[in-house]
């Protein structure tokens, strides 16, 4: 089995995670920002290429979101733990806990749906996609705040927005899962 270009880009994104962590831990906000931006561009590019080249695959359907979640969860954790030595703003612990808890909830709900009712598709909602945008923007602004403290307020705003959307999208997933189970029971 050969890997398609979109799948290779997803693997590249996963491979960039240790480099991102190293740059954050070394106190290099510009380099960390650059690595995170390249990883983000690989995400946009892999989805685009999968559609344009008609290279959508089951492997890609799993790799892409896994790579995204690993990158974002790692960024939230390391920018919470590392604090202000790399960024002007430290991601509050409670925001990181919400982000991780919601992602774990989504995986558990998807697994439960697959096991209980045989439902294998659990696509992201529109609210979840907006939430991901806020999380990515929040990380970018936190890293930018390490270069210029004028980004502090914007970074905090994006983080609080991401926290709010994280809670709302988590509730949305629970409600969707409930409807799916009810539909199977009818």
Keywords:
186 residues, mainly alpha, 6 helices, globular
Description:
The chain is mainly α and 186 residues long. The protein contains six helices and no strands. It is globular. The mean pLDDT is 88.
Taking the alpha carbons of the first and last residues, their distance comes to 41 Å
Measured on Cα atoms, how large is the radius of gyration?
A: 17 Å
* Poorly predicted parts: none
Shape verdict: globular
Helix/strand class: mainly alpha
The tally of helices reads: 6
**Average of pLDDT:** 88
The tally of beta strands, per DSSP, is 0
Summarize the helices and strands and which ones pair or pack.
Elements: H1 5-25, H2 29-52, H3 58-81, H4 93-117, H5 126-145, H6 152-185
Give the structure's gist in a few sentences.
The protein contains 6 helices and no strands.
């Amino acid at each position: 089995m050969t890997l398609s270009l979109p799948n290779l880009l997803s693997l590249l994104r996963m491979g960039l995670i240790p480099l991102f962590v190293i740059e954050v831990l070394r106190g290099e906000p510009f380099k960390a920002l650059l690595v995170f931006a390249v990883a983000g561009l690989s995400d946009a590019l892999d989805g685009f290429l999968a559609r344009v080249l008609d290279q959508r695959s089951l492997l890609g359907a799993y790799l892409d979101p896994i790579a995204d979640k690993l990158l974002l969860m790692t960024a939230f954790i390391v920018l919470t733990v590392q604090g202000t030595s790399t960024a002007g703003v430290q991601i509050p612990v409670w925001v990181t806990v919400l982000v991780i808890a919601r992602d774990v909830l989504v995986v558990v709900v998807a697994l439960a749906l697959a096991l209980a009712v045989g439902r294998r598709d659990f696509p992201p909602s529109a609210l979840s996609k907006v939430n991901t945008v806020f999380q990515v923007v929040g990380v970018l602004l936190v890293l930018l705040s390490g270069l210029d403290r004028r980004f502090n307020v914007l970074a905090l705003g994006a983080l609080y927005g991401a926290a709010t959307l994280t809670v709302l999208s988590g509730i949305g997933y629970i409600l969707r899962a409930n409807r799916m189970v009810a539909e199977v029971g009818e």
